[in-house]
Each structure stands twice: as C-alpha cells, then as structure tokens.
Amino acid sequence: MQSTQGFPRSLAIFCKVVDNFGDIGICWRLARLLRHEHAIAVTLWVDDLRSFRRIWPAVDAGAEVQEVDGVQVRHWRGQDGGFDPAGVPDIVIEFFGVELPPGYVAAMARRDPPPVWINYEGLSAEAWVEGCHTLPSMHPRLKLTKHFFFPGFTAKTGGLLREAALLDQRDRFRADPAALDAFFAQLGLSAQEIAAAKAGLRVSLFCYPEAPIDGLFGAWEAGARPVTCLVPEGVAAERVAAFFGAPAVPGATATRGALTLRVIPFMAQTDYDRLLWACDLNFVRGEDSWVRAQWAGRPFVWHIYPQDENLHHVKLRAFLQMAAGSVESLIDFSLRWNGAAGTTTDERPDWPALWTALQADLPAIDARAAAWQASMLANGDLVSNLLRFARSLR
Amino acid sequence: MKPAKEIRVGNIIMVDEKPFIVLRSDVNGSSRTGFTYKWKMKNLLTNAPLENVFRGDDKFDVVVLDKKPVTYSYFADPLYVFMDEEYNQYEIEEENMGEAINYLKDGMECEAVFYDGKAISVELPITIARQVIYTEPAVKGNTSGNVLKEAKLENAIEAKQFTIQVPLFVNQDDTIEIDTRTAEYKRVVRN
Fold first, then answer.
1. Do A137 and B54 touch (CB under 8 A)?
2. How many domains does chain B have?
3. Along the 394 residues of chain A, how does pLDDT read in single tens digits?
4. What residue in B sits closest to A344 (Cα-Cα)?
C-alpha cells in the first residue's frame, strides 16, 4: 500500500452550471473549504463565469485562468483538447456527474498513480443513497475507477458541507445586536425599518418562480403579526413586481397590511449566511441554500428543484420524514409550498390556515432545528469525510 | 456501445476488457443530476461478484452472445434446468439466474444465453403475465392517490415466491402484467 502521507496535495473540481446558482454555489464552497481548511491546491473548472460572479463578485467573468481566494479558477470552454498527465492532480471531482473532457480522462489514465476520481452527487435523504455511497464505477475501457460520493444525513453517507468555524461565527453574529443592525443597514434598510423588522417576524425568501407566493403574501398581509420579508433581486421577480406594481429592483419596498416586502441586492455566499442567521424564518431552495439553512439552525421551508414526473416530491417527503419530526404544520406547509400535497390538482391550499399553524409552531420547529443540527454534526463534515475516503483508496 | 440506461439484467458487458454479466440493476437518482444504475455483476472469467454504480450515459460494449429459445424444466438444486426444442438440457447456476428467478414458472419460455459454449443466464421477455396468489383485500375508503399494496406472485419454486407493489383494485387470482426490467406492475389482464 502506498503511503498516504501528504496526500492529497492537489485537487480539481469540474463544474457545469446547468441553471441557477446551486452548482457553482456548492462547488465554490467545496473549493474554498479544501483550500483554506486542508491546504490543498485546488483548481476549479467552471463553464459559466458570469453565474459564478453573481455569488462571488471578485470573479473576472472574462478571464481564462485566475486566482480567486486562493483557488485557481479556469474557464471550462468545452470538451476538446489534450492534457498532460503531469497536470492532473491527486484527486479529480466531477460534480453531479458532469462529463469530463475525453482528453483529460485519458491523461488521468496515463498518470502514475492515477488520481482518485470522485463523482460528487446530489444531496438526498432517500434511503437508496446509503447503498450507493462510495461504490466504485469502473471505466469501461480505461484502467480507471471513479467512486460515487453522496452528501447525506446519516453516518452511512458523506455528511454535509460545513466550515469548521461556521457555527461559532453564527453564534457570535447572533449575540451582537450591533452586527445585526449593521448587516440590515448594509442591505439598505433604514434605522426605522430595522426597528420595525426586529419588532415583527423577519423572513428571507429564496424560491423558484413556481412557488405559490401570492397565497403566502396574502396570508402575511392579512395576518396579525407584522412580517418583514427580504427577497434577493431576481427571485420570483415577476410576482414581487406585481406586489409593488413596479419593477423589483434592489431597494424597492412596500407595505400592505401586515406585510412589508423589500428587495435586497443579490449577495455573495458569506452574506447570504448572515441573512439566514438574521431571520426568524427562511425560505430556501435547491441544495446549497437548503444546507446553509440547516446550519443556520432557524426554522426554514425548502423549495425543492422541480423535476420531471414529480420525482422531487419523493425526495422532499424523504427529507421531511427524516428532519421534520412530528411537526405536522411544517410538513403540511412544505408539501403545499412544493405542490406535493392533495389528491386533486384543483384543491386550493388554505394559505392563511397553513401560515397560522406554521407560525404557532415556530418555537417547536426552532427546537427541532437544534436537535437536527446536533445529529448532522455527529456525521462529521463532508470535506473531512471525503478526504478520509480518498486516502483509503490510496 | 450502449448507455447504461439501455442495458438489461442478463446482458453481458465488457468492463476493463473482462466480460461481466449484469445480475441485478437498481435505478435511482433524479432528472436534475441524472439517474444512477447500481448493478450487481459477475465476472464470467473468475465468477467474482462485483457491485458498481454507473450513470445512465456511461457507455459499454455489450457482448452479443448466442441465444436460444428454451423452456424452464425443473430445479436440480442448485441448478435450474432448461430445455430447447430438440430436448437438449442446459443447466444454469442459481446465482446467474438474476431477477429471472422471481418469475420462474414450469414451462416458462425465455432465452438461454451462451458464453464460450456454456449456458450462463436466461433473459426474460420485457413483459410477462403472472397470477396473484395472495394479496390483501382493498380496505374500503382507502383508495386515494398512489396507494399500493403487496401481491405475492405464482412461482415454480415456493421458496422463491416474491411480491411486487400493485394498486388496491388488484385481487387475489387476478393475472397481472409485470415489467421485468423494473419489477413494476403494468396492468390487470382481463379476459
């Protein structure tokens, strides 16, 4: 067996932005964690630098090669070209099963020893994930084997991405009222608005356009408790604009009934974390913000990425069954938010009733979130788990 | 070259220049990140079992082997014996039967697959009909949505009887069609 001392020193991640910001969001978080907490030289290949720039403004969308926060970022322009085996790192990660350039795979096969090749998969609470986690996948023609690596919620999966200092940073932020005020001011809220937001319920809203926002806004408007909803620019833009009767640009704000809606700038990953920490309830979507909401330890409602034949409903139910405990209001609300409940399509959700029930259970959901977070911590962090697995293959 | 999503249980594929028979295939995943195919395989040269997972678009050379129509004859523990129309008998090891074992029935027609002159597996039709030998009656009022129940199917060897999920309206003694690739119920056969 070869020594694993000093392994790995280098690593490459291949990321394709299919849509939205989840792909690059997760890859960038993974890249920074590997670089900063494990001192590994990371190269991130990305096909869409413009989307990358939205979540990390320091990125130059026109550069072929650049260094960003200690990570080498390369513009992945296509599948053509030859590669030198000497340029192949110790570990190669293909994200969500992206197809690596054939020339790169050939160079991997010529490298001695070949790299550890990881297929980093999507997060799911479904039971089958445990059975596929770390399984090999032999290359049909080359002397190469990649391994599937699944993030997950149990000890038989890879765990969740988490920075070592994340929870301390969160707790310090929450314990510092001045930091909270400064953050809201940074988002454009006036002192009066900040005071009003802190007196009522603070909600962040990040969802796909299909979310039943109108019903939720209606319930908030008619509710007794003031709600300040912060929605990043571009999120559900048409529906938010309809609420304002004007374009949903950063700074736009309006109050109707008990609801104050404000559009905030689209923000970098680190700021988004603070938004989740600063709010009493978070609506999140996809995978990256979903994981961050779990580490925020606040009540959240997940809007899952829609899939053909409603396959996402299976994934949603698996997660709720695992994470929501017996909080029926959260389960009902989440299923309705994702169009996954009801036996007939014309059955209209009663949003005021769903919201009333959810709001009444927020303390219980808060307590549940803390217990859930403790169980996630017990699984370790994904990057450490991944590196341990990679070393076991050497 | 065939993508993983088109490869069926019983197919022989070349991996690392070695022939493997696919004994079981479980498909999972999502349309967002792509489906994964978890295969239980066996190396035909060494008989070593192997469990691998592939993506639906991973491509493999499928070895086209000789096939011959046969019918199931009898079980001579641990071999399953099939017979062709010229009364030649072929013995297949239980571990090579794969999912076919679940649908075994006296006189069942299928195709024996040969490698290096030896019968190594059987391939089933995609759709077969089997009688339900036991299922719970439907509970009145419990008929909404996608509620399913278990149904035990007829099988030549009692110890190998297995169950699939069927809709509530399926009754004991009904004959149903099953997709053998996924072990999923398709429909009730009404005469």
1. yes
2. 3
3. 456 678 999 999 999 998 778 899 999 999 999 999 999 999 999 999 999 999 999 999 999 999 999 999 999 999 999 999 999 999 999 999 899 999 999 999 999 999 999 999 999 999 999 999 999 999 988 999 999 999 999 999 999 999 999 999 999 999 999 999 999 999 999 999 999 999 999 999 999 999 999 999 999 999 999 999 999 999 999 999 999 999 999 999 999 999 999 999 999 899 999 999 999 999 999 999 999 999 999 999 999 998 888 889 999 999 999 999 889 999 999 999 999 986 555 578 999 999 999 999 999 999 999 999 999 999 999 999 999 999 999 9
4. B145
Q: A with B: how many residue pairs have Cβ under 8 Å apart?
A: 69
Contacts of B38 in chain A (CB under 8 A): 128, 131-132, 135
Q: Which is the catalytic residue, given A287, A288, A332, A381?
A: A287
Rounded to whole angstroms, the Cα distance separating A33 from A28 reads 8
Phi, psi dihedrals of residue A118, rounded to the nearest 5°: -115, 130
Report the domain count for chain A: 2
Peptide bond into A151 cis (omega under 30): no
Chain B contacts in chain A segment 50-79 (CB below 8 A): none
Q: Is A309 a catalytic residue?
A: no
Residue appearing with tokens 């009909």? B129
A132 contacts on B by Cβ (under 8 Å):
28, 36, 38, 53
| Rounded to 5°, angle at Cα B141 from B137 and B147 | 70
Does the residue A264 lie in any domain? yes
Quick check: B107 contacting A, CB < 8 Å? no
The CATH number assigned to the domain holding A280 equals: 3.40.50.2000
Indicate the helix (H) or strand (E) that contains A289. helix A288-296
Give the predicted TM-score (pTM) of the model: 0.82
A43 lies in the same domain as A30: yes
